[in-house]
Amino acid sequence: MSVWIYSLCALGLVLIGLYGLVRSHHGLQQLLSINVMGSGVFMLLLALAARHAPADAVPQAARHAPADAVPQALVLTGIVVAISALALGLALLRRLASYDKGASHD
Amino acid sequence: MTEWVMAGLVVWPLIWGALTLILPSRWVLFAGALGALGTLALGVWVVSLPPQIMTLGNWPTPLGLSWRLDGISQSLIGLTAVVGGLISVYAGVDKSCPSVFWGLWLGAWGAMNALFLTADVFHFYVTLELLTVSAVAMVALTPSAAATRAAFRYLVVSLTGSMFFLLGVALLYGRYGVLDMAILSEQMTMDWVSALALAVMTIGLLAKTAVFPLHSWLPQAHSEALTAVSAILSALVIKTAFYGLMRLWLDVFATLATVSASMVLGILASAAIFWGGYQALTTSRLKRLVAWSTVAQVGGLLLALALVVQAQATHSVQTASLWQGLVWLIGAHALAKSAWFLAAGTVQKRAGSDYLTQIGFAMQHSPISVFAMTLAVVSLSGLPFTMGFIGKWWLLSLAWELQAWLWMLVSLLGSLLTLAYGWRLLNLSLMSRVWPQPLNPVSVSKDWVALGLALLAVIGGFGSHWFWEGI
Amino acid sequence: MVLDGILVLLILAMAWRCVRTTDLFEAIIVFVGLGMMIALVWTRLQAPDVALAEAAIGAGLAGALLLANLRQLPEDSSAVRWRSSWLWWSLWGILGLALGFAVVSIQTTPVSLMPLVQAHLPESGVTHPVTAVLLNFRALDTALELAVLLWAWMAQRHLFEGNFKAFHSLQGGVLKTTVKMLFPLVVLIAVYLLWRGSSSPGGAFQSGAVLAAAWLMLWLAQLPGLNWQRLSLKVGLLGGVMVFFWVGLLGLFQGAGFMGYPADQAGGWILLIESVAALSIGLLLASMVLVSMPNFQEQSP
After folding, report:
1. For chain B, what percentages of helix, strand and coil (3-state, to nearest 5) are there?
2. How close, in Å, is residue A64 to chain B by CA atoms?
3. Could you give the CA distance from residue C192 to residue B453 in angstroms, rounded to a whole number?
4. DSSP string, B190-221
5. B270, B299 in Cβ contact below 8 A?
6. A80/C57 CB distance under 8 A
7. Cβ distance B425 to B286 under 8 Å?
8. Contact between C103 and A22 using a beta-carbon 8 Å cutoff
9. N or C, where is chain B less crowded by C-beta within 10 Å?
10. What are the CA-CA distances from residue A40 to residues A34, B125, B157, C245 (Å)?
């Protein structure tokens, strides 16, 4: 099934995110890398959810099993947590920038 | 009734913490105190409840979530209650604590309670995230660039750790199709997927526990934060990630926890003990010294975990007492470290400086705090007659039974190092030639709170049979 | 199959570009694009709820947040550079190989919680399985997740205390008129998404994100929208978490267990919780973006 290709894409995203985290030059890019990693993990969860529901199924066909709802719920939770963390990280960076700006004026 | 107490453990602090957002600042302290008091009472109450499992919403696992109350979670909730309560008293008296501290602290406390109660791996992740957001924000309360930088670094490391943990959760769900810890431990088999899940989840939690080599965020974050925050972080927040490691290695993945795996933990633990101790011996700042001590002590905890894993893997020691020893060590460290940080913060406030060379006069005029620090150092080194001594005795006798001579040696050297850097600090109060300095007025009640925690670290050892036999 | 392959290659290429580029603006734009592509993947994987949330929150709101903040961050950062060495890279490689092997081996394991979900779906009060899991079976997960959102806001509020000054729109009349026409439609969409959530993809999070977009539109067009200093708005921020927990305790009182509902009332309670939560989510997300805006006027300490 075509779902396994998304599982591999997921781990590609995890590895790219990890790479980006170590090699980033800027705090904002570190936050982006963490989000990329997160997307990778979410993709793995959703690929697992769709394992037994073929991706090319006709939506209303009763024969095909629907995708697993539990990982989908988990990923929804994860998306909200990720944006909360992103917002907090950006606020910290902004606060840091204002301190540094203040210091350079002394 | 018990269900109300357990629900209250999470709901009470979160509701009061959320309310501080809308209350005018006069009332925030009141709300914070009410929240802290209620959570303290519930936390102590829960220790007396019989062990049980509560399914949320009456849905059977694995469909729904379940809360597990057993000796370990009860003890840790109770510990968090007592230590958290006393730190709240300190924060209430501390004038430099902004009012938003209470909202954040209650959120962290509620998250910790939920974390200790949960028996679901994904729910563990969510509670960990709530705790991270609150803890990072608390570090950033200090209005300095260094603190904000430390907070950002803490956030990045913590989030990465969470991502690794979530990756492990995904692998577990893919392999077993359940998220409940009890069912997972029943179905756990030794295969590559499970081993990888254990590995990535461990890496994530090690980063959050600040174990060598992922420890570098801790000294900055814990030393730049406000005193009450440092105490909360070092004594309580760190322990939640360690608790996660305990549950993973001794419960969920018990089938996979082999002796060779425990060696890896032991090596990392030893590195943490020595590196942390070395840094504590050579640093020039007070709170940094205490923070590096946390790195070393966490290494000690991990060493104990490695021994327990080895014991469980070889079935050579009775299993029941193994958990108790770990919880005891956690408790001893939490009490001693919180006392040490609070006392150090008080001295720093008086001296107006964080540098060891400038605090001598303040130390000589803070007898209560110095006494608290002394008791803390004694307990952390494992000298009699303290909780730390009992814990260390348990650790060394376990190592003796397992014939793990190397770990015994490491543990003893760790004690020596602790004594060494502790002495380095306490020596400052005994020096004869110190220049008089103007001291900032600091409320004496702060000293007493620190002493209270330190005394608990000492007398907690007496009459503790109920703990060692009860779990 | 070919579509999937192209999508995967595109996503990996965009992710690589996002983390490799040294231009932050480009990184953000690529990140938003990546989010949209990932939303497409979610639809391919039969997860429309998640696709909606990803597009609205993961790509849209995240993009707005990032761009709003970008202006105020220096090009070279005072953040941390991590030391990398051959040891780290070999560990990274080993992790990749191990993950690849593990992922391939779990492709066919026939385990899932879905049969249990479907078996209990009739008692849950809703007919859409994802909503049932989120709001009923694993309700505490969602409640704590709302708490994470609220606490993240609490932290930002402390870091930046001040006033939301009006934004001076360059478009003037055109933007104002357009927003005036669009605003009711967007709110309607939000309500529709909320209502639909019990039987088909939708729900509080997607609805909340759309509401946030609506309020941000108002603010950008300098229209009188919400007075952010008012107490009622602050109460609205807390509403989601509060109502969720109060209903949870009520469930305990009624004998349905903590965070549970009596079987015949479940649908009603879930709708109530979702409505208040959608409002809170919308307010929280909008506030987070507004606090980041360059025109946010800070109060002097």
Report:
1. 80, 5, 20
2. 20
3. 55
4. --HHHHHHHHHHHHHHHHHHT-TTS-THHHHH
5. yes
6. yes
7. yes
8. no
9. N
10. 10, 16, 18, 32
Please indicate, yes or no, if residue B131 is contained in any of the structural domains: no
Interval C129-139 mean pLDDT: 91
Phi–psi pair at B215, nearest 5 degrees: -100, -10
Q: Tell me, yes or no, whether C237 lies in a domain.
A: yes
Q: Which of these, B327, B320, B365, lies nearest to B346 by C-alpha position?
A: B365
Contact B153/C at CB under 8 A: yes
The whole domain housing A9 covers 3-104
DSSP designation for B317: S
Q: Which residues are paired to C120 by β-bridges? A: none
Average pLDDT over chain B, rounded to whole? 89
Residue B377 lies in a domain: yes
Q: Is B121 on the interface with A (CB under 8 A)?
A: no
Whether A19 and chain B come into contact, CB under 8 Å, resolves to no
Segments forming the whole domain that contains residue C146: 113-298
């939690």: which residue's tokens?
B205
Q: What is the CATH number of the domain that holds A36?
A: 1.10.287
Question: Could you report the per-residue pLDDT of C250-283, keeping only the tens digit for each?
Answer: 998 888 888 888 888 888 899 999 999 999 999 9
Could you tell me the sign of the dihedral formed by the alpha carbons of B171, A72, B13, B75, in that order? negative
Residue C81 in any domain: the answer is no
pTM: 0.94
Q: Is residue C248 part of a domain?
A: yes
Q: Distances in Å between the alpha carbon of B85 and those of B5, B34, B43, B226, C97? A: 17, 11, 10, 17, 47
Of B156, B159, B173, the CB nearest to A48: B173
Q: If you count residue pairs, one on A and one on C, with CB atoms under 8 Å apart, how many are there?
A: 262
Q: Percent helix, strand, coil in chain A (nearest 5)?
A: 75, 0, 25
Q: Is residue B24 classed as helix, strand or coil in its secondary structure?
A: coil
Are A75 and C49 in contact by the 8 Å Cβ rule? The answer is no
What is the rounded average pLDDT of the residues B208-227? 89
- Give the CB-side neighbour count of residue B392, counting CA atoms within 13 A: 25
**Is B328 a member of any domain?**
yes
Q: Are B253 and B194 in contact (CB under 8 A)?
A: yes
Q: B363 in a domain, yes or no?
A: yes
* Neighboring chain B residues of C237 at a CB cutoff of 8 Å: 21-22
Asked if C50 and C202 touch (Cβ cutoff 8 Å), the reply is no
Q: Which of C16, C72, C152 sits opposite A84 (nearest CB)?
A: C152
Beta-bridge mates of residue B285: B355
Grouping H, G, I as helix, E, B as strand and the rest as coil, residue B68 is strand
Cβ neighbors of C222 (< 8 A, separation 6 or more) are: C166, C167, C168, C169, C176
Q: How many domains does chain A have?
A: 1
Give residue A63's pLDDT band: very low, low, confident or very high (50, 70, 90): very low
Interface predicted TM-score (ipTM) of this complex, two decimals: 0.93
